[in-house]
Amino acid sequence: MTGLPAESAPAAGTALETGASFHEMWAELLPIGRNPDSGGYRRYAWTGADADCRAWFRAQATARGLSYELDRNGNQWAWLGDPAAGDAVVTGSHLDSVPDGGAFDGPLGVVSSFAALDELAARGARPNRPLAVVNFGDEEGARFGLACVGSRLAAGQLTTAAAHRLRDAEGISLPQAMERAGHDPEAIGPDPERLARIGAFVELHVEQGRALDLSGDPVGIASAIWPHGRWRFDFHGEANHAGTTRLEDRHDPMLTYANTVLAARKKARLAGALATFGKVSVEPNGVNAIPSLVRGWLDSRAADQETLDAVVAEIERAAQERGARDGVRVSVARESFTPVVEFGHALRDRLSALLGGAPVLPTGAGHDAGILSAAVPTAMLFVRNPTGVSHSPAETAREDDCLAGVTALADVLEGLACH
Ligand SMILES: [Zn+2]
Question: Is residue 125 part of a domain?
Answer without folding.
Answer: yes
